[in-house]
Amino acid sequence: MVILNSKSKEEDLVLTVRNLSYKDRVLFDELEFVLEKGKWTSLMGISGIGKTTILRLIAGLASEFSSGTSIVHSRKISGELAYMSQVDLLFPWLNVLDNVTLGARLRGEEGSKDRALELLRSVGLYANAADMPSSLSVGMRQRVALARTLMEDRPFILMDEPFSSLDSLTKVRLQDLAAEMLQDKTVLLVTHDPLEAYRLSDSIYVLSGQPACLDSTIKPAGAPPRMIENSEVLQGQAELLARLSKAEAP
């Protein structure tokens, strides 16, 4: 059972996962964590532990758990979500502007073109509005994906390793841009990168064991995005690596 508890949009979102199994394997049992309103929360753990499953449960996309599993929301949040994945998922037959405005156009929203162009200006791609995805670099495509996520203007943002395919310099730049442009959103970030988690997060959870459980919450000092050369950031990265190294294989 998955329960999302929140009495109003003004409160934090509490996620509770109980007795969730897949192919006779118990993934989660009495797992609970908090998504603070307007903050970034990172979820870490070894591959296969269930991080993406949690995102998919929140988004209502985990159809493989429909048999014998109840997914209960105390209030509907499916219409308040935007999802940014590791793969940009741009439609190759649409240009940059049309990719960004697709959702708004399908909903019949007026003024979507002007707003999308402003977002593309914000991510440094205004001049590329008419370009096709095939002509863009990986970093540019991810900036288009970020603009598309922002175009949805949802209070909850789910991010599944959105920067993992980028080179180090582009990754840092896009992390900074995302932190700036999503600063008022409630963000849940799944990542394997301890430095990324420590730079961007207000809270960090590490999943380990079988069934998966949570270690104590890490609360980095200062406001994100934190500078890479900051000694506290480097120490935090080391501590996260140490926690991850202790995680048991699922």
Quick summary of this structure?
It contains 7 helices and 12 strands. It is of the alpha/beta class.
List keywords for this structure.
250 residues; four-stranded mixed β-sheet; 12 strands; six-stranded mixed β-sheet
Secondary structure elements and pairings:
Layout: E1 2-5, E2 13-17, E3 20-22, E4 25-28, E5 31-35, E6 40-44, H1 51-59, E7 71-73, E8 81-85, H2 96-106, H3 112-122, H4 138-152, E9 156-160, H5 168-181, E10 186-190, H6 194-200, E11 203-208, E12 213-214, H7 231-246
Parallel strand pairs: 1-7, 6-10, 6-11, 8-9, 9-10
Antiparallel strand pairs: 1-2, 2-5, 3-4, 11-12
Helix pairs in contact: 2-3, 2-4, 3-4, 4-5, 6-7
Describe this entry's structure for a reader:
With 250 residues, the chain is α/β, with parallel strands linked by helices. The chain has seven helices and twelve strands. It has helices at 51-59, 96-106, 112-122, 138-152, 168-181, 194-200, 231-246; strands at residues 2-5, 13-17, 20-22, 25-28, 31-35, 40-44, 71-73, 81-85, 156-160, 186-190, 203-208, 213-214. The strands form three sheets. A six-stranded mixed sheet has the order 8-9-10-6-11-12, with helices on both faces. A hairpin with a 4-residue loop joins strand 11 and strand 12 (213-214). Helix 6 (194-200) packs across helix 7. The longest helix has 16 residues, at 231-246. It is globular and about 50 Å long. The two termini are 20 Å apart. Mean pLDDT is 83; it is low at 66-75.
